[in-house]
Amino acid sequence: MENQKSLKDIELSVLDLVAVLQGHDVAYSFQNSLELAQNVEKMGYKRYWFAEHHNSPSIASSATSLLISHIAQGTEKIRVGSGGIMLPNHVPLVIAEQFGTLDALYPGRVDLGLGRAPGTDPITAQALRRNLQGSGEEFPENVLELQQYLSDNPQGHVHAYPGEGSNVPLYLLGSSLFSARLAGMLGLPYAFASHFAPTYLHDALRMYRDSFQPSDQLKEPYTIACVNVIAAETNEEAQKTATSLYLYFLNVVRGTRERLRPPVDDLENYWSESEKRAVLQSLYYSFIGDQETIARDLGAFVSETGVDEIMACSHIYDSKARIRSYEILSSAMKEG
């Protein structure tokens, strides 16, 4: 698509999966998240989101609403929210009450991003007491029900207290075309999970824009692309730091459940050619390098996609290196 946007034109945000590190406990990950949020707030990042996952020893963001509160309490102005709440795992009324509570505690700072995947495996999905039949088909009506609870809701027989009248902004998340069309029809912002599912990015953005209908929340289309970013002082340092990310996704390919590992010197010792191809395909939209490289490559991505916001996800083992990566990214965006 023809687009004149540059990096300076778009917002910058964070998606945190709260990786659990080898050699450390979950509490360490929570502290790292708070420290990162406090730092990116100073750098001018717009929002800090958590993604709901279950039954994974390497991800500690299962109690998403609690982590949002933890980060909001430790910061002052950065928006905090879910990227996302997996709505089929919950009844809409409970989510309305939870996010109504968060909005009352941290007024004007809370986002509610919604996904329709379980965020886990089928057996765990059953343990979450989901109706595994037809959950995708129920997603649109559940979004509308949730939206009603968060509105003034004058005709409702059931009310969300707190939550009613808060109008917490909704965002739809997706990695395929389903949510793109729905977000457009409902006039909601749309975030695409290109950090692990790159295939349908361009088609989904096109479908969202083509189907967009203005709403009370949003008058024009608004798109967010989540991508992997690992920035360092040099390209070589960034590539070595990124080996933690590659090994993490190698676990996904193999179906194993290891915590995030420290960087390694020779990645070729760890994967086969077919595994390497699978990992690199999933991580196609990964931006790895020094500030100049990040600015060049992300600038091309923004020009190509026309997105309004970049949400960066960074699987980096060392907490100081992770903060530094977001600092370099911020500088690249401002100069791009």
Walkthrough of the structure:
The protein has 336 residues and is α/β, with parallel strands linked by helices. The protein has twelve helices and nine strands. The protein has helices at residues 26-43, 64-73, 92-105, 122-127, 135-150, 178-186, 201-211, 235-241, 243-254, 273-282, 291-305, 319-335; strands at residues 11-16, 47-50, 79-86, 110-115, 170-174, 190-192, 223-231, 286-289, 309-313. An eight-stranded parallel barrel has the order 1-2-3-4-5-6-7-9, surrounded by eight helices. Helix 7 links the parallel strand 6 and strand 7. The longest helix is centred in the first third of the chain and has 18 residues, at 26-43. The radius of gyration is 19 Å and the shape is globular.
